[in-house]
Amino acid sequence: MDFVIVNGENAAGGRGITGKITIDLLRAGVSVITANKAAVAAHGTRWHALAAQDGLHFSYSAAVGGAVPMLEVVQRAAAGREIDSLEGILNATTNFVLELVADGLEFDAAVARAKELGYAEADPKLDLDGTDAAHKLELLARAAFGEDARLIWAERTGIERTRAADVRDARFAGESVRLVASCTRTAAGVHLRVAPEHLDADRALSSTRGESNSLVVHFADGESLFLTGKGAGRFPTTESLLGDLLELARREPSLALAHSAAS
To answer: Fewer beta carbons within 10 Å, N or C terminal of the chain?
Structure first.
């Protein structure tokens, strides 16, 4: 393996150019690490196959969960146990915005605050309309149920039309409004849903605060696993990208030595 390309979402967002670059790199014998969940959701199965042909490394931990290793945990859990369903708060931007709205801020002001702190893109449309959470959910569903799992979308709804009064009324009633992404295995396939939900205080996801993400893995034996941590901002994403790099260095010691010598 000659070298590694770290292809972050902010550096090369979207599917078109990222897809071409990734395919060209894999065909040239270069391992790829990316944070672009939209591109991986659209083409990841094909890219995995291309990487496997030549024993290359293709990873995208930073595409889901920020600093929380959601994909890794789900993949390892699925290897040893039967997963029944997943549910999570996968977009920390919407979580941060909804919490500010519950605190009394107007929706637009809450979005502006998220941008100011680096928790939202300059154009947060894909966060607010549920697209970002949907891409992440597809990746988690494949990790849990297999790359060839039939994914059936039941609903994809964001928070743009959520009324501030409803969010505040929910807080008053001891509930929280959150954008919840969930998937459940059925005989027909894996059913996926992204939509705002009113969460009772006893729901695990209701404890997710600020710019955090959370995931609950429900196993067929009735047990569950809860993950949570920082999800928005440059630093959580950077941590995951570096984690993938370190994992590659662990698998390819000669690569790590070459980079050390070059520096």
So the answer is: C
